[in-house]
């Protein structure tokens, strides 16, 4: 029987394990604060930021939110980051991506104080990760590690294919999996848009991590029996478009109301037939990303307060 991995359940368990860490910090007089910065009108970005803020409020992390007009000059964002870097109530800073075209994304990520960089995107934190001395592990790959661990999926000696080489998912995922550690020790192949014969690579894998941002790129014909499939993709696909191309698609009422449906990078129905275990979209990797953001914010606060909180 194929296991459908319940990301919400695993995320809830880790979140519950974070509660005592917050109590330890409270005893030391610290309430962690996460600043979110949104410079976009994009509906998906607004949704993700509000989910992050809600998760902070639910756990007892202070959420401090800033919005900038997408047409504002890049300097307005740099100035805001400088203020947040200097604000003692702020332990973590998350600038929601993507940013408008006129803003240099890498310059923005480098402007964030690396000790407040709870995304783990600053070059200092990337360097630490690659050299095996991580401070903040990027939330999505870290969440995937937690998910594999919770499901008892052994990475040591496993052939893992990561589809995607972005700085936010694919590359840090590959870096974590090759580390000499209990949750690493995998043999990793990183695929991307110039990869020749992707299906041959994924068919040879014990674990496939799909993070290409291409709806249903990976289907069952590209997988061997027994594979663990981790679907990172969260793609909004127009409901009417999808209905006309596939009359079998079952969309619920809420999809119709929203006008879009969430689709992963994996074609779930055919992949499920081959996989040993598979994450759904929604309800797979996404909830873990948010939980690991809370984790990193607590870590940032504990490093600053110099208090050992025994993170899970
Ligand atoms: N669940 C979660 O928590 C999160 C989900 N996401 C989702 O994950 C997906 C990936 O995000 P992100 O990494 O930011 O995306 P990017 O667009 O930054 O990167 C996509 C990567 O996939 C590669 N790629 C694109 N098309 C193909 C193809 N046909 N075959 C093989 N590789 C391909 C690209 O190759 P190349 O480098 O050659 O262009 C690139 O390396 C998106 O759907 C995003 O919404 C992202 C973050 C968190
Ligand atoms: N600085 C920065 N850091 C990020 O970590 C970051 C970012 N920018 N920009 C965009 C991507 C995407 N991302 C997601 C997080 C959670 C879900 C998530 O929880 N998804 C739910 C469904 C959400 C819905 O209903 O729309 C799920 O999969 O179950 C999805 C996507 C973080 N990202």
From TrEMBL:
NADP(+) binds at residues 164-166, 234. The keyword Oxidoreductase applies. Transmembrane segments: none annotated. Its EC number is 1.5.1.5, 3.5.4.9. Residues 239-259 are annotated as: Disordered. It comes from the Archaea. Keywords: Amino-acid biosynthesis, Histidine biosynthesis, Hydrolase, Methionine biosynthesis, Multifunctional enzyme, NADP, One-carbon metabolism, Oxidoreductase, Purine biosynthesis. Residues 5-119 form the Tetrahydrofolate dehydrogenase/cyclohydrolase catalytic domain. The keyword Nuclease does not apply. One of its GO terms (biological process) is L-histidine biosynthetic process. It catalyses: (6R)-5,10-methylene-5,6,7,8-tetrahydrofolate + NADP(+) = (6R)-5,10-methenyltetrahydrofolate + NADPH; (6R)-5,10-methenyltetrahydrofolate + H2O = (6R)-10-formyltetrahydrofolate + H(+). Residues 138-302 form the Tetrahydrofolate dehydrogenase/cyclohydrolase NAD(P)-binding domain. NCBIfam families: PRK14167.1. Homodimer. Catalyzes the oxidation of 5,10-methylenetetrahydrofolate to 5,10-methenyltetrahydrofolate and then the hydrolysis of 5,10-methenyltetrahydrofolate to 10-formyltetrahydrofolate. PANTHER family: C-1-TETRAHYDROFOLATE SYNTHASE, CYTOPLASMIC (PTHR48099:SF5), C-1-TETRAHYDROFOLATE SYNTHASE, CYTOPLASMIC-RELATED (PTHR48099). Belongs to the tetrahydrofolate dehydrogenase/cyclohydrolase family. This is Bifunctional protein FolD. The gene is folD.
């Amino acid at each position: 029987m194929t296991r459908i991995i319940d990301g919400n359940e695993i995320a809830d368990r880790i979140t519950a394990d974070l509660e005592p860490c917050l109590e330890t910090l409270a005893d030391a007089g610290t309430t962690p604060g996460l600043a979110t910065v949104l410079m976009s009108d994009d509906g998906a970005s607004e949704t993700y930021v509000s989910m992050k803020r809600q998760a902070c409020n639910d756990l007892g992390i202070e959420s401090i939110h800033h919005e900038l007009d997408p047409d504002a000059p890049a300097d307005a964002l740099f100035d805001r980051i400088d203020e947040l870097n200097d604000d003692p109530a702020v332990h973590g800073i998350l600038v929601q991506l993507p940013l408008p075209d006129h803003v240099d994304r890498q310059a923005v990520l480098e402007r964030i104080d690396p000790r407040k960089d709870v995304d783990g995107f600053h070059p200092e934190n990337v360097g630490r990760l690659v050299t095996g001395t991580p401070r903040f592990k990027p939330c999505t790959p870290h969440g995937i590690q937690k998910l594999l661990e919770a499901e008892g999926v052994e990475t040591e000696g496993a052939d893992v294919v990561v589809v995607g080489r972005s700085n936010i998912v694919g590359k840090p995922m590959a870096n974590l999996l090759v580390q000499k550690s209990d949750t690493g020790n995998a043999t990793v192949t990183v695929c991307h848009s110039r990869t020749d014969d992707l299906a041959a690579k994924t068919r040879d894998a014990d674990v496939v991590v799909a993070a290409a941002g291409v709806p249903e790129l990976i289907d069952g014909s590209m997988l061997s029996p027994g594979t663990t499939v981790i679907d990172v993709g969260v793609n909004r696909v127009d409901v009417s478009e999808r209905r006309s191309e596939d009359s079998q698609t079952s969309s619920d009422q809420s999809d119709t109301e929203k006008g879009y449906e969430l689709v992963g990078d994996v074609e779930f129905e055919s992949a499920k037939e081959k996989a040993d275990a598979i994450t759904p979209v929604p309800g797979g990797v996404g909830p873990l990303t948010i939980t690991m953001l809370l984790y990193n914010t607590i870590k940032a606060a504990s490093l600053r307060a110099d208090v050992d909180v025994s993170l899970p």
